[in-house]
Amino acid sequence: MTVELIAPEAVSWSEIKTFQRCPKQHEYKYVERLVPIKKSRPLFLGSWVHAALQTHYTDGDWRIGSQVFTDEWNKLFDEERLALRTRGRQVSKPLPDIVKQIMESYIWYHRDDNWKVVAVEQEFMVPTPLKIDGKVQYLKGIIDLVIEDQDANWWVIDHKTAGTIPEPTAFHAMDPQLMLYPWAAEKAWGWNIAGVIYNYVKSKPPSIPQINKDGSLSKRKVVTDYPTLYRFLKREGYEPRDFAHLLRPLSKRSPFLRQYRYPREKQVTREILLDALSVTKHIREDKRRSRTITRDCATMCSYHELCRSELSGLDTTILRKSMFTLKEASTVGDRFDGEPDDFDEPED
Ligand code: SF4
After folding, report:
1. pLDDT (tens digit per residue) in 90-130
2. Is the residue at 339 inside a domain?
3. Which atom of ligand 1 is least distant from the CA of 291?
4. Residue 159: which of 170, 172, 143, 135 has the closest Cα?
């Protein structure tokens, strides 16, 4: 019997997406494995909410997952915390308060979901039909959540923390690559998955209304949700029933949460798999990692200073040491090592 001691060649969706965005960024992140030391607010906040959702579904308590990040937050210097609270010219409330508000609202709106949890943070590594130099290429990843709904259908759930939730008809709302996850789940464990549910959570928390100087409630429109508005009214001594016209619509639907269901389709799976294999081939075979320079480089790429300096032929030894650490190689999917593509938090 032969034992395979060499780790199989595997790519994750995060890696494929990075390569599609910019091959040079892929080189910094996956070949050189450079990890930015400075925390990015969208990525940090998105990871935090994700961890809270994870233990909400495993242990029934979001605080367990959140605590890891709260501890990290508490260890930061004041200026680091301030940097993480800053969005453009605005300073938000502390991140622990934002996560608490987001999660309390999430739980309130999802109290009647009737989801039976099948698996949480399920790692997979499955062979694809692609071989390069005789080696089978694997696809790896982590499925956030698999649930059984009230009709006994199983769904892959992908949590998406975003500054702006796309409309359901927007092409990018479905993040088509994830349509491969049902295929992967079937290959890995024989599960029959009905499709993917994109579980959007807005990273900007609901606002509270202003109170006028005379003590009355400001008529200025705020974007809020039911639990936030209800609690605010009670705290300020108002009678919630007097605000039923505001509370009623908010009790049915939160502007901060959306769930989009996309049933599995053979044609989509096939197309996406072919795309993935084509990108994998480029990742393995392209010798030169070219730059894809766009106006998003400065705001969305953690490597832009390094990239620019190298483009100009400067010595980047000090810059590399001061801005990055090296990441250990991992076998399965890297969860939060990416650029903040899912966690984008543009100014409103
Ligand atoms: S700055 Fe732009 S071109 Fe350079 S690595 Fe980042 S995304 Fe690519």
Report:
1. 888 999 999 999 999 999 999 998 899 999 999 999 999 99
2. no
3. 3
4. 143
